[in-house]
Amino acid sequence: MTLRYRERQILKILLQRESVTGNEFSDIFNISSRTIRNDVKNINQLLKDKGVEISSTTNIGYFLTLTEEKRSVLMQLLAKETDAYKSEPRYRVKKLIQKLIQFESIDLNEFVNEFYVSQSSVLQDIKSLEHQLFVNSVNLEFVRQGNQISIANNTETNIRSGLALLLVGDFNDLDKAILTDMEDLGIEYRALYQVVVRSLNLTRSVLAEHDMIYLTTYLYVTLVRIRRKHELNVTMQTELESNPVVNTLLSDLERKFSVHFNDFERFIVHRVYSSFSNDGRASTKLTEICHDAQTICKNVDLIYGTHFADDPQLLDGVVSHINTSINKAELNINFTDEIVKEIRSTYPFAFNISTYFANEVTKTKSCHDYRADENEIAFLSIHVQASLERNMMTRKLNTVIIGSYGIGTTKLLEAQIKKEFPNLEIQATVAYYAADMIDYNDIDLVISTVPISITKSIPCLTVEVPIKNESLQAIKRVLQSKYFWSREIYPIILDLPPTITQEDDALDYIEKAIQQIEAKTVSLQPSFKAREQALTTNIGRGIAMPHALFEEHFNYHLYFFRSQAGVQWGPSPVHLIASILITSEVKEYMNDYMKLINSIYSNLDVKSSNLTSITKLYETMGKA
Asked: Residue 381, SS3?
C-alpha cells in the first residue's frame, strides 16, 4: 500500500472529524472537488483489503465508519507511512536543490550515503532536475566534474530566483511537506513563513497562495545565501523603491534572523514583491498599459457585445495583472498553477475572450515583453469572468416562457428562472399552442419546454422541468453575450477590397488572408468549393457562408469578410461572407454556430448596414 501525501492527510482529517464536505476539502487543499473524489476513490481501492472505506452522502459529505479494531489498524498504517514521501525521487530532487542553495557544490557520494540509494538513482534525479530547468524556463545550468555537481557561472539574482522557482515548481501538497523540512543555520522555513504571513497581515497586503509560497521560498533562499556569504553587491542604477509593505517585512526578517539587507538586496526584494502586487501605486508604465488595455477593451466590446470598456474594476484588475506578469518575466519567475486546468473548461467564453485579449496585448508597445501563454490567459479569464458576472447582474433581458405541461409546471419553471436570474424580465408565460400570438419585437430571449421556431431571430432555449444545471448554464451564456461564441471560437472581422467583385477572386483573397493570419499554407478554396457543390453556401439577403471540414489545426475558426461594393456569389450578390473552418476539435458544436449565423443573418439586409462589427449586425436585426 502506498498512499500519496494528500491522501494520508485526508484520512487523518477524517479520523479527527465526524464528516467533511467536498467543498471543505477543496478549501483545505486548494484543489477541485473532482480531484478530491478521485483521491477518495484511490484511497478506497488501496484500503479495500483492510476493510476500511470512506463513505459519502449528499447532505453529510465524506466520513469513516470504523470499529475500534479497524480504527487502530488505520492509525498504525498511517504511522508507518508518515515520512514515506522522503523515499520518493521528488523529495531527493528538492533536497538536491536545497544543497545547491547552501553549498558551492554537492558531493554525489555523500548524497548517495545520506539517502541509501544508488549513484544511478541520484544521476536520474539530476536529469529530472535539469528537465525542470527546461520546463520552467529557468536560466540555470548544472555542471558535473567527477562526483561534484555545481551551478555554472551565473548572476546571484538569477541563481536565487531560479532555485526558488525549482523548489516551488508545479506546486502540490508534497512540496509543502518538503519545504517544511527545510532548515539551515537557524533559518527554519516554517518560522520564516509565519513571519511573512504576520507581516503581510499587519500591512493588510493580500497575495494569492502560490505567490505567497514563492515569496517565502525566495526569501528563504535569500537568507540562506546571505548567511553563506553570497550577498548581492551591485551598484544601484535606479532609485531605491520604498514600499511600506516590503519595508515592514524586511525589518521583521532582520530582527527575527539577525541578518542585514543592503540597498541592492532591498531593491531586489521590492522587485520580487511588486511582481505579485502593485498595491495600487501608479507609474508611467502602468498608465501606458492602462491606455492600451482600454483600447483593446473597446475592440472586444465591438466583437463580442460585452461592456468591458465601462467596467473600471476589470481594467484595474487586468492592468495590475499584466504589469506584475511582465515583472515576473523580467525576474524569470514562471510557474504554472492547478487553477489553469479548471478555468478553461469552467469558463470557456471568458477563456475565449481572454485569448483574443492576450494576443492583442502582446502587439502593444507597452507590453512587448508580455508572455501570453495558456497560464496567463487563464488568469486573465478570472478578471473577464468577474466582469461578465457583474454585467449579467445588471443586464435586463425581456423574456417569454413557453410551457407544454400545463399551468402548474409552467409556473414552477417561471419561479425557478426568477430565483436564478432575477434580472430576466418575464414579459409573458404562455402555453406552446399560443406561442404564435406573442409579439416578439421587444423580446430578447425565449425559454421553452419544447422546441419551437419563431419568425424573429432571437435565442430560443429548450429546457426541462425541473430545470437542470445544463439549461441554467445556457441561459447564463445568453446573459453574458447576445450571441454566444464560446470555447476556441471567436470571430475575426475583415473587409474585402472594393476591386473584388467575383466569387473566385473573393475566395482567393480570403484564402490568402486566412493563411497569413493562421501562418499556414493549407489550401482552402478546393475544400470550400467541394462543400458548395453539395450544399449551397448562399443563405440569402446578401450573405454567403463557405465552410468545410479540415484536418489542420486553426487558431481561429470564424472569419467574416464584408464588402461594400458587393460580390457576385453564384446567382446573387453578397455583402457579407462568413468563412467557417470546421476542424475535429470544434466539429461537435460547429453545427450550432452555423445555425446561429443563419438565424442572425437570414433576416438582415447587410447591404444597407454601414457597421463595424458582427455584434452591431446582430443588434440591428429586424431594423434593416
From this structure: helix
Query: Would you list the DSSP string of 164-203?
Result: HHHHHSS--HHHHHHHHH-EETTEEHHHHHHHHHHHHHHT
For the chain, the 3-state helix, strand and coil shares in percent, each to the nearest 5, are 55, 15, 30
The pair phi, psi for residue 105, each rounded to 5°, is -150, 165
**Three-state SS annotation for 210-257:** HHHHHHHHHHHHHHHHHHCCCCCCCCCCCCCCCCHHHHHHHHHHHHHH
DSSP line for 33-67: HHHHHHHHHHHHHHHGGGT--EEEETTTEEEE---
Its pTM stands at: 0.53
- End-to-end Cα separation, the chain, in angstroms: 71
Closest CA to 402 of 441, 448, 439: 448
> How far, in whole angstroms, is CA 173 from its chain's centroid?
21
CA dihedral 128, 130, 132, 133 (to 10 degrees): 170
Grid cell locating 61: 459529505
What pLDDT score does 545 carry?
Answer: 82
The rounded Cα 140 to chain-centroid distance in angstroms is 28
Task: Name the packing angle between helices 173-181 and 209-227 (round to 10°).
Answer: 20
Bridge partner residues of 149 (DSSP): 106, 144
Question: Would residue 298 be called left, alpha or beta, if left means φ above 0 and alpha means ψ between -120 and 50 degrees?
Answer: alpha
Residues 302-326 pLDDT 10s: 666 678 888 888 888 888 888 888 7
Rg of the chain on CA atoms, in Å: 30
Asked if the peptide bond before residue 466 counts as cis, ω within 30 degrees of 0, the response is: yes
The per-residue pLDDT for range 12-49, each reduced to its tens digit, is 888 888 889 888 887 777 677 888 888 899 888 888 88
156 is written with which cell numbers?
546571484
Q: Burial code of 292-303, b = ≥16 C-beta within 10 A, e = fewer?
A: bbeebbebbbbb
Q: Is 116 left (phi over 0), alpha (psi -120 to 50) or beta?
A: left
Nearest to 158 by CA among 98, 105, 262, 230: 230
Q: What is the separation of C-alpha 422 from the centre of its chain, rounded to a whole number of angstroms? A: 28
Pairing of strands 397-403, 424-431: parallel
Grid cell digits, residue 583: 476542424
Contact in structure between 343 and 325 (CB atoms under 8 Å)? no
**Eight-state DSSP code of residue 17:** S
Query: Residue 241 gets which letter from DSSP?
Result: P
The owner of cell 470512506 is: 54
Q: Which amino acid, residue 383?
A: H
C-alpha span between 576 and 609 (Å, rounded) = 10
Per-residue model confidence (pLDDT) at position 81: 58
Which stretch of DSSP H or E encloses residue 578?
strand 572-583
The grid coordinates of residue 343 equal 478555468
